[in-house]
Amino acid sequence: LKFTDKDRTDAVKKLQKKITDIEREIYRRKKSGQGAAVDSELALVRDAKHPLEGRLPNPYFLPFRNKNISRMSEKVITVSRLDGPSAAVVRRVIDDSLAVEKKGLSGKAYFDARWPRIDEKNLTPYQRYDRAIRNTANLVEKSGRLKVILDEREPLFQPGQAPDASLYCGWYSLGKYVDAFTWKRGAVGYHVASAECTTLKQVESRVWCKSMLEKGVAATLGPVDEPYLDAFPAPEIFFGCLLNGGSLADCYTLSNPFWSWQMILLGDPLYRPFKARRPAAPILFRPAPGH
Predict the structure, then answer these.
(1) Which of 144, 236, 255, 278 could cross-link 245 (Cys pair, CB 3.0–4.6 Å)?
(2) pTM attached to this predicted model
(3) How many angstroms separate the CA atoms of 54 and 231, rounded?
């Protein structure tokens, strides 16, 4: 029996396809990539047929709008969690949100980048997110609402360096909250690091979500596992939406890239920290290219 080169090529292709099919079946049976935050799964409760493997693009995420993206569910509801280290913290979050919404959030906005501004070409994902944090600081400063403090050094804000904090976004201290802030009533912020929302109830835990709630913020967000950097909300969209008078839930929905994944939102979903101080003209909050 004689095999031609074409026969050999076809046989190799069939074998490769069979190996790939077997690997996919092993992956499916192990349920790898199916882990996600309960809240993020609940967002798709109206879509009974959404795939379980991996993260699913959010149709409301501004950079995904009007794009043909596979695995995107159109049946989405926003889920927010009123939760924290104790019932007293949750009651305080509710009271603060209602009180501050009447007069508008005041204080200072702190943004903690890691490096000075660099060449805008060929940025790594880390450099792109760092640029996004700097862009957000510029957006808030241009709004004239709050005094902005932008730190472009690699060390984080240190204890005592961030008084009257009302907005915050920074990185990267994994599982180790740095007590640099005195939080204004109604403060909103988040820290970019993995698994910062896994242990809201553990007394000794120093993750950022738990610690920020204990120290006084009214709203934060974070992942329950490793989300990868591109799954964090786009800060320009999240904080720009808040400045426009948007609710916490709406701003999260517009800025969160994925559902069926690791991120959760903590706070009163209807909280609008700048409801009483809406701008005369809309603030533009476009995400940096490549997010």
Answers:
(1) 278
(2) 0.84
(3) 12
